[in-house]
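Give me structure tokens for this 43-residue protein.
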Amino acid sequence: MFINAIEESAKNRPTRTPVAARQIKGEEELRKFMKEWEKANVD
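Here you go.
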């Protein structure tokens, strides 16, 4: 019973979604990123 529950839960795992990510290096690059982020998130 317990093993069946483990097998069933393993079948129902969500798919992985690739995400574009990069590392921000330096204060200037961070400021540029924040300006772009603010423009994209204006209500």
